Amino acid sequence: xxxxxxFVVRHRWWVIGFWLIALVAGVGAASAVPDRLTYDFSLPGQxxxxxxxxxGEAYGITGEQSFVPVYAAADGVRGHRAEIAEVxxxxxxxxxxxxxxxxxxxxxxxxxxxxxxxxxxxxxxTAEGFEDPLxxxxxxxxxxxxxxxxxxxxxxxxxxxxxDSADDTEGPSVLAETLIGAFxxxxxxxxxxxxxxxxxxxxxxxxxxxxxxxxxxxLTEVTDVSFVVQFLVALIGLGVAIDYSLLVVSRWRExxxxxxxxxxxxxxxxxxxxxxxLASGVTVAISLVALIVVPVPMLRSMGFGGMLIxxxxxxxxxxxxxxxLSLAGPRVDWPRIRKESRASRAWxxxxxxxxxxxxxxxxxxAAVLGLAVAPVFGLQFGITSSGSLSDSGPAYETxxxxxxxxxxxxxxxxxTVAVASPADVPATVAAASxxxxxxxxxxxxxxxxxLTGVVVVPDQETVDNTSVALTDDVRDxxxxxxxxxxxxxxxxxxxxxxxxxxxxxxxxxxxxxLVTFVLLMRTFRSVLLPLKAVVLNLVSVAAVFGLATxxxxxxxxxxxxxxxxxxxxxxxxxxxxxxxxxFGLSMDYEVFLLARMREEYDRTGSTxxxxxxxxxxxxxxITSAALILFFSFAALASAPDTEIKVLxxxxxxGILVDATLVRSLLVPALVSLFxxxxxxxxxxxxxxxxxxPSPLRPEVPAASPAGDxxxxxxxxxxx
Length: 719
Known about the structure:
Among the domains are: 1-36 and 194-338, Multidrug efflux transporter AcrB transmembrane fold (Up-down Bundle); 47-166 and 391-492, Alpha-Beta Plaits. 64% of the residues lie in helices and 7% in strands.
């Protein structure tokens, strides 16, 4: 780190010039990247996806209907089958559309209990994005054809419910969200620095974000990159780059306040705080390995794109930031209202109090975390239920009318059985119809290849761990019959994700924890500190999932705060994404705090002094950094999509919980309790890690002068 800082200071104009070019190129890349991103939700090798691919080849559809047309007549619809057939035929003329319902089958289970409404299922080709390009044509065709035959019509479906919600709440653009987060960060930075120096981390963040977009643009040339990456780069990149800058700039000011020359202070800041930044950035990148090794293209691309955020932020902070501080740091640090010559009195007193009442602090922290973790055992994976997508609008009213008529929400998530030959269809229909929880079964017209889709409509949505049990029941009933090719639909897709992601996730989690443990063992020169850090991080993430389960899945507060009722399940891709980012981002604060505690212990030989001085020097920075990230996630939570709200609030609350309850209470309490064992690293472990060993040694009494060199030498000899 010293060599890096020295090189940057000596060649600061070249470094600044390089990043200026990257900044300009990044502006162009940021506008080009969105058009290069993909909406790939494929799951190669999984039954649901492979069956959807077969149906796609045979019919041009995936087996997941996109629309549910509903027909109504004051005198009942039984006498209007011919009129409904005319409308369905008009819809079937649209490219790639398949329709099945009362008109095609005559089955009265496609009718409401009072017979005043009928529904059809309309299957369309796979859309490239969230919006189906046929949506407008379907609505126009339905309205025109229904008017000709004199029927009342309406339309519902997951996409229509989502659009109703988006119409109710128009969220800001990615750029607007980023600017909102940046404004919140600026307020915090002005409080921390009380000078024009507050603008420097924002400049660093701008360079880091645009440079990351430049690399992402290059990444799109060699692999698919998910559309979600643009949100992650803009908002998480903003928070991470500012947090890293905050740590280095604060240490530079501290060294300057102690009388060091400007370039000397820059080198020292990079050697100490910069080392923590490097460890933090690598830790965040390692946590995203969880996404790269999962055999799901969308999550894998998020992992590749997400890894670039901490790595590029670290690179910019360790090169451009010291160059700028060396060039103009003292001139920008004006007016110097806040001084850094001594640790924060408030945070030092807090650390002293935690040390004094460490047993109480540890018990309170553990109890609160335990309460937060408790709901996690009810966590459901799947897709967002219809109830949380919208509570008003035409699609919502249509679905409500169907429910009032005795038709459950299962019309939104049918299961499609792929059968090899029309001759095998009757047996499949009979077997599926006998399954409890199935409302109606109807075959599509045979495809030109002979493959035939048999549509199974459940009573209720198959969207989470519990409700997808019906999918297994249908599979058990039909899989042994001749011609069975597989199941497609929402339920099978949920099961695909469970198998592809969560069946192997414990192994991935173990590998990430081990790699992180080894990295932190080298950073802290300790066995116990990294072990505690990994365990606390896992518990902290579990607490966030518990809170998300309580708030979003069970709906305790989501309606009051966001106007969204309980989701019933967490979108299948959210838990692994939340874990990957939250595990790494939370570890940032652990590294910032423990790295300073280790430094203070090496200087004083006292665990108590290490805790007090470590809290005094980093408490304000960690809290400020957490607030900056929180503002970024709060801006992201303003998006209209429920899934993005869940992601943003989980990350935001997780950061606050980690920075307050865990890092400000549990960590200092546990370090105080462990005493001299915190700092132990035997020689046989230190050698392969290429660091100095740290043998056990007696504690220096807290009253000893912190800077007494003779006392320090005496402790080292005794140790």
